[in-house]
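Dear colleague,

Thank you for sharing your sequence with our group. We've completed the structure prediction you requested, and as agreed, I am returning the results in plain text so they can be pasted directly into your records. Please verify that the sequence below matches your submission; if there's any discrepancy, let me know and we will rerun it promptly.
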Amino acid sequence: MFGIGGGELIFIMFVVLLLFGSDKIPEIARTMGKAMAQLKNATNDIKHEIQKGAEENGLDAKSLSEMTGGINTQIDKIKEDVLGDGVVQATKIKEDIEDITGPVKRSR
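Please find the predicted structure tokens below.
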């Protein structure tokens, strides 16, 4: 968690206990929990507002996935065309070299 090991975490908890005392720690933890919940709610609200704005402008998840799916299909087709030709050409060149020189063997 955040690159903090077990020993370091225990040391931090010990320092917090010394600074604030055992009676204040539950109150601090409760306050931090409430703050984290508020932060989570705020980020969810922002996310929903962005999605709502996108849907109002005609950009819903389905249309976006259709667009990206079409783009990915075209990219895959181009990859197959380029790699397919390259593999065929590489195989032909390899065969030509072997025909000229024979199999290459290591000599010790």
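Summary note from our side: Helices lie at 6-20, 25-56, 61-101.

Kind regards,
the structure core
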